[in-house]
């Protein structure tokens, strides 16, 4: 994964956080939070791969 990919994931995380605040229903908020956790896990995986 490139730094650009990591940056894109970080942007996605921020967008999802904003969406979760604006979610009209609990179900929608849960769906967004699940996507948020998946994006965070992907970013954490990237960080582990980059460590020496």
Keywords:
single chain, 52 residues, 0% strand, 2 helices, mainly alpha
Give a quick summary of the entry.
The chain has 52 residues and is mainly α. The protein has helices at 3-22, 26-50.
Describe the structure.
The chain is mainly α and 52 residues long. It has one domain. Helix content is 87%, strand content 0%. The protein is built from two helices and no strands.
The gross shape turns out to be elongated
Class per helix and strand makeup: mainly alpha
Helices and strands, in order, run as HH
How many whole angstroms does the radius of gyration measure?
13 Å
How much helical structure, as a percent, in the residues?
over 70%
First-last Cα distance = 15 Å
- For the secondary structure, the number of strands is 0
Mean pLDDT: 92
Query: In percent, how much strand structure appears in the residues?
Result: under 5%
Low-confidence segments, given as residue ranges, are none
Strand count, sense and closure of the main sheet? none
Count of the domains: 1
**Helical region count?**
2
Layout of strands and helices, then pairs:
Layout: H1 3-22, H2 26-50
Helix pairs in contact: 1-2
